[in-house]
């Protein structure tokens, strides 16, 4: 029986463990912080739980648009009270429950769980304290942690990383968010909706510079319309505590005062102290583990998955890397990881979801394609719900009409993107989508309508 040892119990680790157990391997997961890893306990699950609360808050604030008169809100839309001392315990309880559910599933499938710090002694021996685990296959799935600036050291009270947020007993009155990537944008949006006065520090010309430009523009407009201050093209040089808050000094000389500062300036892989380089595992710039498209490292029998590899830091990608590693290691047929089919979402309000090729790929000539964008404010279901912000964008190959990608900005974009994701994965054409029934009225109807627009515009 093949012995598999997995270091790390996050999505890359526990999904790999389930696959390996299914294939009849003897599987051990060595976990330090709790099954589910940072994704379940401190990052993805807690943040999306917080965002769910913030989204409901926005709906309550804007209920009068639909003719619903809530007395405490009607006279002053700002008067929606959010008790963070109730919100945060609920979030942590949900995360712990998800972790425990996952642990029970592993045990039920015959996976052994060992608590402790792991280290590679050699490619076939993993040390956990004094214990030595022999392995035919090792998977590294150790994750990553928030990057810290030497001039803005988090203290867990006023200067925070997102992993400190759920210990707060009061809602930040004036929150300064440093970093306008996905994480920064999500928390800025959430806390603005919860009632904080939010300032977002962005080093680039626009927020979320790696996302679709049209989508980022819509979201920045929404942020500012709801009262957020966006400070563009400047960086935080330092953050210091004051008696009752923080002062952030910016690279352009300005200072911003707030009650709290949230630092979202990137991730550092958890690869130190694992004995990787001594075992021959090559690390890339920044300490990330080098892997190929089937999750192999530079050492035979040693694989890696998830944030420690730096390959598209999403839970879904980590999980797929882990599964691919086990399928490959245990002799199953496997398709290499294809990043062009990965769907991602920014859980702002409204949400931003994307998959596949971008409009920039078309404009730059990297792909021979064409696109169409339909605003959601023309969609009947959107009108019923007073949704005015957002769109559906679909991209296809110029002559064949094969769907190459798409972007959706709107409510539940994370759910709506699945249709486009399936089309990209299965190489469907706009004709295939156009001839697919969509419920009327529905937001998903805009996906099939976009496909019809591209079908009609196809060259003869």
TrEMBL record:
Catalytic activity: a quinone + NADH + H(+) = a quinol + NAD(+); a quinone + NADPH + H(+) = a quinol + NADP(+)
Enzyme class, first EC level, given as a word: oxidoreductase
All copies of domain FAD/NAD(P)-binding, residue ranges: 3-322
Binding site for NAD(+): 179-186, 266
Pfam families: Pyr_redox_2 (PF07992), Pyr_redox_dim (PF02852)
Keyword Translocase: no
Keyword Flavoprotein part of the UniProt annotation: yes
Disulfide pairings: 39-44
Keywords, alphabetical: FAD, Flavoprotein, NAD, Nucleotide-binding, Oxidoreductase
Cofactor binding: number and manner: Binds 1 FAD per subunit.
Single GO term (MF): flavin adenine dinucleotide binding
The family this protein is said to belong to: Belongs to the class-I pyridine nucleotide-disulfide oxidoreductase family.
Name of the protein in question: NAD(P)H dehydrogenase (quinone)
Record organism: Nocardiopsis aegyptia
């Amino acid at each position: 029986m093949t012995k598999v040892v997995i270091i790390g119990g996050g999505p890359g680790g526990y999904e790999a463990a389930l696959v390996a157990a299914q294939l009849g391997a003897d599987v051990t997961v060595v976990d330090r912080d709790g099954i589910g890893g940072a994704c379940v306990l401190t990052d993805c699950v807690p943040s999306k739980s917080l965002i769910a609360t913030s989204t409901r808050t926005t709906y309550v604030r804007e209920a009068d648009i639909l003719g619903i008169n809530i007395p405490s809100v009607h006279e002053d839309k700002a008067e929606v009270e959010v008790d963070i001392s109730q919100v945060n315990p609920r979030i942590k309880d949900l995360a712990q429950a998800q972790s425990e559910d996952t642990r029970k599933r592993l045990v039920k499938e015959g996976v052994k769980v060992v608590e402790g710090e792991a280290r590679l002694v050699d490619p076939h021996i993993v040390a956990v304290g004094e214990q030595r685990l022999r392995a035919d296959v090792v998977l590294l799935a150790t994750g990553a942690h928030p990057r810290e600036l030497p001039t803005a050291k988090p203290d867990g009270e006023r200067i925070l990383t997102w992993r400190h947020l759920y210990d707060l007993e009061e809602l930040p009155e004036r929150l300064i968010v440093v970093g306008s990537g996905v994480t920064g944008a999500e928390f800025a949006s959430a806390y603005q909706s919860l009632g904080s006065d939010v300032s977002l520090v962005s080093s680039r010309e626009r927020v979320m510079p790696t996302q679709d430009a049209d989508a980022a523009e819509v979201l920045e407009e929404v942020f500012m319309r709801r009262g957020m201050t966006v400070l563009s093209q400047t960086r935080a040089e330092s953050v210091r505590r004051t008696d009752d808050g923080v002062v952030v000094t910016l690279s352009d000389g300005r200072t911003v005062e707030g009650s709290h500062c949230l630092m979202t300036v990137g991730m550092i892989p958890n690869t130190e102290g694992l004995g990787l380089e001594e075992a021959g595992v090559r690390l890339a710039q920044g300490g990330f583990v080098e892997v190929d498209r089937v999750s192999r490292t530079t050492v035979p029998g040693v694989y890696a998955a998830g944030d420690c590899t730096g390959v598209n830091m999403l839970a879904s990608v980590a999980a797929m890397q882990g599964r691919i590693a086990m399928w490959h290691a245990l002799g199953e047929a496997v398709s290499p990881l294809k990043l062009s089919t990965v769907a991602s979402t920014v859980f702002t309000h409204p949400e931003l979801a994307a998959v596949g090729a971008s409009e920039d790929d078309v404009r730059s000539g990297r792909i021979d394609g064409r696109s169409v964008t339909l605003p959601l404010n023309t969609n009947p279901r959107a009108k019923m719900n007073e949704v005015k912000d957002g769109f559906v964008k679909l991209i296809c190959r110029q002559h064949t009409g094969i769907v190459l990608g798409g972007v959706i900005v709107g409510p539940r974009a994370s759910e709506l993107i699945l249709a486009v994701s399936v089309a990209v994965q299965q190489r469907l054409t706009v004709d295939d989508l156009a001839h697919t029934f969509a419920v009327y009225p529905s937001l998903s109807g805009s996906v099939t309508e976009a496909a019809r627009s591209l079908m009609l515009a196809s060259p003869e």
